[in-house]
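Thread: Newbie trying to understand structure tokens

Hi all, I'm a second-year student working on a class project, and my supervisor (Dr. K.) asked me to get a predicted structure for one chain before our next meeting. I've only ever worked with sequences, so writing a 3D structure as a token string is new to me. If someone could post the tokens and maybe explain what I'm looking at, I'd be very grateful. Here's the chain:
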Amino acid sequence: MSTINHAVIASRLTAERLRSYTASAHDLPGAIRLYDWNTAISGAFHEDLGRLEVVFRNALDTALVRHATARNWPTTWYRRSQLFPGKPGRRPLAVVAEARQRATRGGLPELHGKVIAELPFGFWRYLCKGAYLTSLWVPALAAAFPLHPTSNDARSVRHDVDDRIQRLHYLRNRIAHHEPIHQRDLRRDHEQLLELTGWICSDSHAWMVEVTRTAGVLGRRA
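---
Reply by user tm_fold:
Sure, no problem. This is what the structure looks like when written as tokens:
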């Protein structure tokens, strides 16, 4: 028998934070069990999303480096304002400037890989917007997803990648702020995470499938 005083735990978590859990459970102990499961599934997804973020950003960066090299650009791609035209371009350019500043803090030399690592997930998600179809996706980024079913159609690739990365970026932000995710279609989230990885690289997909804890935690829902 549990010795946990659920009423005290509920007061520590606050009624507001527990509201979605109490609405989904039959009693207070059940709500707290669901809260604990939400924490567990968030942790499992956090691992998968972390792997995806690195694979995703490196795939986009590789495609853009290849594009820049083929055109003999004198500067790295993230410093070319021409790639981010119009009003929407102000946001990614500002994020790049901040990343470069962090990467060179303390007088360190600017290293391409360090700047790429400093760019947040939201930056890469933003590059998937329709505003960048012509400047980024047609000439470069569609090639980052060679295993997409219609990989020769940059418009279709961008649309499908944007659909999934938007959903997963939102999920990541919910997890980062310790918010409830138990009411989402988490199986669909996981399927789309793996699908997106598979469009980039079959070996990365196999790795993700092998190491993920998410499917197991989903099967243990409180």
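A couple of things are worth pointing out once you decode it. DSSP finds eleven helices and no strands in the chain. The mean pLDDT is 95. Feel free to ask follow-ups in this thread.
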